[in-house]
Design goal:
binds sulfopyruvate, alpha/beta, globular, 2 domains, binds magnesium ion
Length: about 300
């Protein structure tokens, strides 16, 4: 099995458009891999929501790291961690990259906003941008820190989210590419791919481009492929589907004061055991524990 960093790098440089699916804990990471995806988006929104907090860096960076460690252990495909702004300045980014490499994370994405950040999809949220040279320094620091040459650093451009326009997006793309970014994530929250396609029209194809079509989900994937986009992130759909499923089940059980109305609709406990790889422990017990002794009735 190829290293996770190398797997991610190959995805990024594949001639066809590739996909990352969101996960937010060990279980969802495993589900992403079993569905056939070749990579995981460690979504800041989904991880914070699953922890019951807002996507405003309310969970500390080491709390996020703990979640990502479980995700990494539960899967054999690479994770690209959404590390928000890098949780501080260039120095915090350096420490972050060291810790991500130690935990087998394939790639990191950092965005050019200010700490603590606001989620990009919020209506009317303040979205102040980091100065270009300061953010370029973070990218450079990340690249200088990595030990594994295949570890990828993705620079996320929030110029459209902050309503600074195409010129600013292109200026930032150029600067972050020069600073050593392995790819650029260009984000937009319009309901069409208009901003993304305008960017692709001007961008000189000097490094892979990543997009997150949460809001422009009606755009056919063939449009992304034709525009030369390398990686598409399905950023939060597992979290959202689990919320709907849990709300429904909780409401039914609360209303009926019985499990009868849900038992046939929900995942059997056996499937939970399978996802936890329970069989492996059974085999290990046979190997490492002495055979079960039947208790001696005489007590001797
Ligand atoms: C995330 O999934 O946390 C993202 C994408 O950063 S977005 O929510 O669109 O900002
Ligand atoms: Mg995020």
């Amino acid at each position: 099995m190829q290293k996770k960093t190398s797997q991610f790098k190959s995805l990024l440089h594949s001639p066809d458009v590739q996909f990352l699916m969101e996960a937010h804990n060990g279980l969802s990471a495993k589900i992403v891999e079993e569905a056939g995806f070749k990579g995981i988006w460690g979504s800041g929104l989904a991880i914070s929501a699953a922890l019951g907090v807002r996507d405003n860096n309310e969970a500390s960076w080491t709390q996020v790291l703990d979640v990502v460690e479980f995700m990494s252990d539960a899967s054999s495909i690479p994770i690209m961690l959404d590390a928000d702004t890098g949780y501080g300045n260039f120095n915090n980014v350096r420490r972050l990259v060291r810790k991500l490499e130690q935990r087998g994370v394939g790639a990191v994405c950092i965005e050019d906003k200010l700490f603590p950040k606001n989620n990009s999809l919020l209506d009317d949220a303040r979205q102040p941008l980091e100065a270009i040279d300061v953010f370029a320094g973070k990218i450079k620091a990340a690249k200088d820190t990595q030990q594994d040459e295949d570890f990828c650093v993705i620079a996320r451009i929030e110029a459209f989210i902050a309503k600074w326009g195409l010129g600013e997006a292109l200026k930032r793309a150029e600067a972050y590419h020069k600073a050593g970014a392995d790819a650029l994530l260009i984000h937009s929250k319009l309901s069409t791919a208009e901003e993304i396609l305008a960017f692709m029209n001007e961008w000189q194809d000097t490094c892979p481009i990543v997009v997150v079509p949460t809001k422009y989900y009606t755009t056919p994937t063939s449009v992304f492929q034709e525009a030369g986009i390398s990686l598409v992130i399905w950023a939060n759909q597992l979290l959202r589907s689990s919320v709907a499923a849990m709300q429904k089940t909780a409401a039914i059980i609360h209303e009926q004061q019985s499990l009868l109305g849900v038992e046939k609709e929900i995942t059997p406990v056996k499937e939970v055991f399978r996802l936890q790889n329970t069989d492996e422990l059974k085999k290990a017990e046979e190997r490492y524990l002495p055979p079960t002794r039947t208790p001696d009735p005489s007590g001797g």
